[in-house]
Amino acid sequence: MLPLISSHAQVYDREFRRRGVREQGWGRGMMAVAVLIWLWLAYQLFFSFSIEHGVRSEPIACDSRAFHRDASSDTSHTETERGRCAAERDWGPMLAAFLLSLPPAAVGAALYASGTSALRTADYAAQVTRLNAVKES
Fold this sequence. Notes:
Strand 1 (49-51) and strand 2 form a beta hairpin. This protein is 70% helix and 4% strand. It is rod-shaped. The protein is mainly α. It starts with 6 loop residues before the first helix and ends with a helix. It is built from 3 helices and 2 strands.
């Protein structure tokens, strides 16, 4: 027969587990924000794009920032068009977005680990209590 655990201990255990689940949720959310920023950056880096430079002119097709042709062998673009393509997807804002995504990723990982640790600790304490109750009876 298992000993009756006081209602205060049950309430504390339940709140402890809720706090752990809440921390895990916040951690997942913050890591999701960082992942969304990283996906946007990957799109900016790896996909080609086009820019419009006038009402009556055709759009300029630009290569991706990561997989572009060598500028010395590219005869289809003039220097002005290459400059516009480079200015459209500048490295500065992409680097700033990456740097701004690091704190949510780090805090999210820490919160998720903390919540998981709290839940595992609560499970461990409950199992030890059950084993001690079985041993005593």
